[in-house]
Amino acid sequence: MLKVIRAKLHGIFVTGADLNYHGSITLDPVQCQILKIHPLEFVEIWNKNNGARFSTYVIYGDAH
């Protein structure tokens, strides 16, 4: 499997996150469509407060 970084995003609006559920991240669908991020696409998440990183997949939430 080849992994390629297509974009590096700062400050995208997260519309839902549950720290007790390890499965997906819910993002603003309007921003995702502009950036060409598809539902169920894997993304790398970085916590700028503590440096933690993890991989998960995208679910579209409510537009903001």
Describe, in plain words, how this protein is organized in 3D.
Strand 1 (14-16) and strand 2 (24-27) form a beta hairpin. Helix content is 11%, strand content 31%. The termini are far apart. The chain has a four-stranded mixed sheet. It is mainly beta. It has one helix and four strands; from the N terminus they run E-E-H-E-E. The model has no long low-confidence stretch (mean pLDDT 83).
Short recap of the structure:
The chain has 64 residues and is mostly beta strands. It has one helix at 29-35; strands spanning 14-16, 24-27, 42-46, 53-60.
Task: Please give the structural blueprint.
Layout: E1 14-16, E2 24-27, H1 29-35, E3 42-46, E4 53-60
Parallel strand pairs: 2-4
Antiparallel strand pairs: 1-2, 3-4
Tell me the helix content.
Answer: 10-25%
What is the CA–CA distance across the termini? 34 Å
What spatial form do the alpha-carbon principal axes imply? globular
In round numbers, the mean pLDDT is 83
Order of helices and strands: EEHEE
Number of extended strands: 4
- Structure classification: mainly beta
Count of helical stretches:
1
Instruction: Write out the strand line-up for the largest beta sheet, numbering strands in chain order.
Output: 1-2-4-3
Main sheet: strands, sense, barrel: 4 strands, mixed
Gyration radius, rounded: 12 Å
